[in-house]
Amino acid sequence: MNDQTPKRLGGSLVERAAAHQAFVQRQAAQQAASPPVAPPVAKPRHDIPVFGAVEAPRAPLVRPEPVAVAQPVQQATQEPSTRRRVAIDRKKLAEHGMLVPGATVTALAEEFRLVKRQLLTTARQIRASGGEGADDRSRMILVCSAKPNDGKTFCAINLALSLAAEKDVEILLVDADFAKPDVLARLGAPDGPGLLDALSGGVKNVEDCIIDTDVPQLSVLPAGTRSVADTELLASERAHAILDGLAAANPRRIVIFDSPPILAASPASALASHVGQVMLVVRADRTRENELRDAVGLLDGCDHIQLLLNSVSLQPNGRRFGSYGAYYGEPDR
User: How far apart are CA 268 and CA 258, in angstroms?
Assistant: First the structure.
């Protein structure tokens, strides 16, 4: 028997074909009589991503609140100074026997070198003592006298000029003799708004009233518009903020106040409570002991009071410098 010949299994091929056809017809009849069965629905798998397919309805889009992003800090651009700048009249200083910046060192210059060294030493002691505001207070000096014409303005200006020659400081000379302001006139500089205007609120920033000079490291603050309430203004809370701010504004700044005579006007007593030390100018041939004691008593708002003896007569072969201060050589200053 040939392998190509179909095998006969359970009847002839014709019989088997007829039987298969009958089976197919029976299956078709049964399917037509029974109800249709829905094909099984596969349960969704949440762990399987769906690609394509029909897109489900989207939920409303909720935009997140904007997150504040810290912006980089930009360095403040220093605005150009709007303060006035004046030239000091050096010829006028020489005519009044005062120190002249840049001139040859004189005996008077040496006198004030000794005076300022003592004041700077006291300032360091005040800083070392600690306490709130000790640093600012140590850099504030009040120059006054017991009576008029004792030479306090002469000494205040010379002290400011001498201190301005120091390498690590800046000097602010404040004309606080409100009744008879004379600092600007002696320097040959024009006057303008000043401390009283800031205290009364007429000027918002006292720094705008400061006048820069052509003397390196020296500036001046005028007295300002005269007021009948100068002492009350100095005793106000605003005065505390402004006067303390003069030193706090610049850690290199030393503030020198030229105040009215303590026995002639009350502002000096009010100013004494703001400063770290007082330089009380005593004229050798005029100030009596009882006047000196009264003056010191009125300055009790300050713990450090130093006396500067003015118009001392030079004795041949004697000590040049007294224990209280300096010899100026010429009277009527």
Answer: 9
